[in-house]
């Protein structure tokens, strides 16, 4: 992996104390000859200027956001309620709820085969282009087919309701507005049924639908040999008692999470989070062109340190013999000198939630009834190979690697029941990839944990719904989830949200091989406990971002709109730019 970190801000492989965290060391400056777009030198910073009242604390009440520039409105997905909250954004400092769209009622009134709102489940995503909003809605039983609801922005009436696949999880327009793409996750409930994941492509001119699926990559399929070996496919279909019936197919196991589209509207990049991969889709032909395996991040390398224990009561960011699976949630695209790049927020996720326990007495590593699809274990519950880990007993203590959550599906390289390698979820970073080759050109290394530790000390790696200092160090750390990009005065910026610790990181990514840290902003008040005071503790759980350029913004300044899932608030950050003479 090249250019893992342009400016890896890590001193050594020793435990990093807060006092040492301000160290800075340059590793590599990227390839020669690939420069970012020239722009005027400028200082950029974010300031929150507006915030809605909470629409429900810890109820997934403010997830994905979209902006209607024609009518100066912000649309926010109030997920579990199955509704969309519409806020008047004429005055960004005073956001007022003006409408609530009940998607269940809209679908019942416009689909003859849906007779009750109980058949309609959560709203998952919204996108806006021109006079249309497209909203992804899952069924009441998420393995049933869902819908994409098209709303006319002029009067908020239904233009069309299009049948989609099982669990349409994310929706986006192509930049030219001609098509809507849907990440159909096809997530199982308990692995007795595992719908196929796919990408739906809806032509806005007539609302016709085509599908790009993965069946050709199944074992025995015409393209099975094209599936990289490092793509994580391992699910098993089970019967009602939890006993395995057969292996999931590739198409069943791949679950599209998020879609980013190239500027020319021809190519879609789709994150396959649990599989640790990205699919490339030819939009015109509704075909999966290729699948990239994203590989693994070596946390034993300088610059890739992490804190792995929630029980040591200290900041302990250091090198460990662990690999991280990138497993991005949100992704974005941008172009530099004719080359497309994909920006990923490397959150991490397991398939641990989707199985049921066997009842035949078989036990897992921890001595519990075996869930055949369970893959998430703590290091202390595994048997480590003593040749690979001669200090295994020490490593497996709670103060060292013992508490870290890892997968059981990788690392037992000789299938003898003991692990020669360890693989954890997510990379605790954002990364930039060459969209054509799949090459990693930049990774932010340990910077998210390092900078939050400088700012908060032991309170870093906190949870989002309660104050639990160091509480997420064993499980994906700060969990970077949301990402978007935006151009300001010829410079391109990436905005990355930390789901757990909260806050927004800003980087200038004009040169994809050498991004520059700009700012970390977080309004969270750690003197307040969220489970007691709710949204009064600040914006918690940033889930969805929308960048709005100055030309489209109500106040003539570029803004970032943030949906905060846990606090239930939607916030507006003004992006202040000072040009340097």
TrEMBL record:
Q: Which residues form the Choice-of-anchor I domain?
A: 60-575
Asked if Signal is a keyword of the record, the answer is: yes
| Listed Basic and acidic residues bias regions | 463-479
Q: Where is this region: Disordered?
A: 459-481
- Alphabetized UniProt keyword annotations: Signal
Q: Which domain of life is it from?
A: Bacteria
Concerning Gene3D superfamilies, the annotation shows:
YVTN repeat-like/Quinoprotein amine dehydrogenase
Pfam families reported for this sequence: choice_anch_I
Signal sequence span is: 1-22
| NCBIfam families in the record | choice_anch_I (NF038117)
How is this protein named in the record? Alkaline phosphatase
Question: Lineage of the source organism?
Answer: Bacteria, Pseudomonadati, Pseudomonadota, Gammaproteobacteria, Oceanospirillales
